[in-house]
Design brief:
Layout lengths: L5 H15 L3 E2 L2 E2 H9 L3 H16 L3 H8 L2 H6 L7
Antiparallel strand pairs: 1-2
Length: about 80
């Protein structure tokens, strides 16, 4: 497995900063746009897939949230998960 290139790391850093620092898409804050427009159907499907994976290992979504929590995932993916 190779490490991400410096270019892709920089792109991720600046993209994440833009999303956190007020980027709007169609007049909607970027994170809200990602959740309610761009990935409206995919995020619940992804959360369900995480739950299925966790179930096979004896973990709940709260456990998975504790392991993989970060600012973006907490807002987009784990917003309905109680810890």
């Amino acid at each position: 497995m190779s490490l991400p290139s410096v270019h892709s790391q920089a792109l991720w850093f600046f993209s994440d900063r833009l999303i956190r620092d007020g980027l709007n898409l169609g007049g909607i804050p970027a994170r809200e746009y990602l959740k309610t427009v761009a990935y409206k159907d995919e995020i619940p499907e992804f959360r369900d897939t995480l739950k299925k994976i966790g179930d096979t290992q004896g973990w709940g979504l709260a456990d998975i949230k504790k392991m993989f929590s970060n600012e973006l995932w907490d807002q987009l993916v784990f917003d309905t998960v109680q810890t």
